[in-house]
Inverse folding.
């Protein structure tokens, strides 16, 4: 049983299966006579929910995680060049990208059969932000074996103590430092051939990192263009809805005006009807009087023979 492979397998499992699977792996190691491995496996801590979500992202959405890390390199390049406009644009893109990738962790978790509530998302974003700022934290994230969340605090290196299950050797960034700003006497006493070779290696490393940074910047710009295109589409739809709303408002105003006219006509009709009712009553009384008079005249005529 390869220890690292087994650890990677355990931390890729649904969170609610971790403890049972870990204990089973330790039991199997014991049965194979490797008590040291069994004890090490048994001590593996269950990851926090947010840390597990990051592990799932690395296992199932690695391209998106690497895109976040590439954006970090672009930000560092912009900081070196003091390009304020680029820094602002990349900073805004960073926030959108962090939130979007963090939300994808919930989908990835559902794919492996373990739903996690949105309350864990701040921890996912915090960890990705730390990985974006610190290459060592980025390396820890990419192991897919996080036990707890990571946090970047100012310019200090991210605390990785106990953050990764199993062996983890954070990458050293000292060898990548540029020659600019170094003490000219720093290489005194170093053989010329060694110095030249070291310089050449550093130059090649710097050129490679620049190509990587450019590729990351191109990807960031492409993502930014896609977001801008989507935003433009939303703005156009909003404009069409605004025109439609104005049309509906005008129609409502016309209908309200027509309603007022009809109300006035109805009141006039009601008034005329009331007047005619009174005239009809008067006519009825006059008719009755005329008929009474007619009957009286007929009776008198009969008496006179």
């Amino acid at each position: 049983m390869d220890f690292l492979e087994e650890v990677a397998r355990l931390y890729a499992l649904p969170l609610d299966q971790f403890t049972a699977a870990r204990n089973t792996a330790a039991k199997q190691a014991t049965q194979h006579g490797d008590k040291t491995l069994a004890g090490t496996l048994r001590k593996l801590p269950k990851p926090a929910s947010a840390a597990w979500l990051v592990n799932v992202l690395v296992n199932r959405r690695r391209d998106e995680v690497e895109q976040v890390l590439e954006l970090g390199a672009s930000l560092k390049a912009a900081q070196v060049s003091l390009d304020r406009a680029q820094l602002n644009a990349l900073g805004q893109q960073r926030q959108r990208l962090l939130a979007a990738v963090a939300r994808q962790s919930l989908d990835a978790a559902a794919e492996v059969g373990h739903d996690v509530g949105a309350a864990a998302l701040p921890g996912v974003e915090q960890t990705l932000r730390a990985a974006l700022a610190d290459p060592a934290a980025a390396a820890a994230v990419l192991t897919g074996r996080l036990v707890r969340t990571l946090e970047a605090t100012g310019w200090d290196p991210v605390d990785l103590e106990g953050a990764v299950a199993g062996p983890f050797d954070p990458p050293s960034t000292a060898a990548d430092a540029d020659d600019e700003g170094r003490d000219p006497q720093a290489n005194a006493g170093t053989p010329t051939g060694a110095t030249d070779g070291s310089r050449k290696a550093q130059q090649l490393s710097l050129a490679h990192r620049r190509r990587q940074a450019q590729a990351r910047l191109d990807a960031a710009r492409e993502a930014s263009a896609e977001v801008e295109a989507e935003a433009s589409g939303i703005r156009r739809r909003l404009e069409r809805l605004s025109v439609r709303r104005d049309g509906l408002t005008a129609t409502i105003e016309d209908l309200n005006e027509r309603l007022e006219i009809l109300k006035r006509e109805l009141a006039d009709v009601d008034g005329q009807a009331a007047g005619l009712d009174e005239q009809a009553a008067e006519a009825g009384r006059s008719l009755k009087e005329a008929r009474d008079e007619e009957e009286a005249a007929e009776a008198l005529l009969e008496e006179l023979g």
